[in-house]
Amino acid sequence: MTGPDADVADGFYSPRELTYIQPAGRRLSDYEASICHVQPDVNHYDFGGWLLLAPDGKSLFEASSTRLRHPDWFQYRDPSSLWQRTYMRQQAVEERAVASLLESARSYGYFADLDGFWAREILARYHQGYGFLEWGLFLALNRAVRLALSDTLTMMITFTAVDRLRHQQAIALFGLELEQELGGIPDGLGRSAWVSDPVYQPARRVVERLMAAEDWCEIVVVCGLLIDPLLSTLAGRHFFRRFASVNGDAVTPAIAITAEPRRDGHLRHGPGRRGGPGRRQPGDPPGLDRPVGSAGPGRRRCLPPRLRSAHHASRRGRGGPRRRRRRVHNGVGTVRSRAEAVNGDG
Predict the structure, then answer these.
(1) What value does the CA radius of gyration of the chain take, rounded to a whole number of Å?
(2) pLDDT, tens only, 185-202
(3) Rounded-to-integer distance, Cα 173 and Cα 128, Å
(4) Which CATH number fits domain 74-269: 1.20.140.10, 3.40.50.720, 3.40.50.300, 1.10.620.20?
(5) Are the C-beta atoms of residues 252 and 261 closer than 8 Å to each other?
(6) I need a surface site. Which of 3, 151, 190, 223 has the fewest CB within 10 A?
(7) Cβ-contact 338, 324 below 8 angstroms
(8) What pTM, to 2 d.p., does this model score?
(9) Partners of residue 327 on adjacent β-strands
(10) Number of Cα atoms under 13 Å in the Cβ half of residue 68
(11) Dist CA 18 CA 202 (whole Å)
């Protein structure tokens, strides 16, 4: 559109014109156009220095905020390519599902079918106490958001923290429904379990140490590689979700299922995964260029030589039958498989 009514921004926000962003692939994605270099860095463009400093004189991005070193943290790309629009779209679907489930349970008298001990002792006490774990991790990750050394890392950690908060709110809403529908449940059982019950004290110590941690990458690594695979999987998946069904509880598994895909996604897509700053750069010290378990040839290089050769042999074994099944012409206009041609069939 041209003329006096034209918007000066028309035609400017095309990803092709954001030439200062180096795309990870062949073309610039919407994720990169929306996230990358939203907060500039003096090592890239702001050569005049920082416009704002902290009261202690520190800048926005301080390399001393983590003991890990990388030549350019802005190279990190979230493989899930989540930005504000895509994230809000996903969360809206999950929130509507949880709200609809609670409404249906209330309308059709579902809470009356709950086992009494499960509802009053396990859900009201330990499931609500688990919500305090998620709240503490949310607060710890907020500090990592502030200290992370690039905007792409900041956005990934922000979504990780908000996922914790969303799960905690779903647990709290379920607890309110239990109190209203069943009655006789004392208030604050979850808090007392988190503060004083011996079951939660080891987890509480870890969360409180994370909240006081000074290294933002330590917070992310402990959340993704320690708490999620061990505690969250044990409590959320193998206890609450598994034993809920035998006690007439269909809401707790649904709440857990909405949190598990995002938690697993953050574990797969965190720093050090494919496309992230954990990949080796020229001049980096010798070591693994990808974590064990990640996709691609980096995983094979992490294997011992004997297992690596077995891995290649299995790959050749899987590829062999596919090559023999290739379709070939027999010279008279019909097509048959290569296996038939070798065996002389047809």
Answers:
(1) 26
(2) 888 899 999 999 999 999
(3) 10
(4) 1.10.620.20
(5) no
(6) 3
(7) yes
(8) 0.70
(9) 337
(10) 20
(11) 48
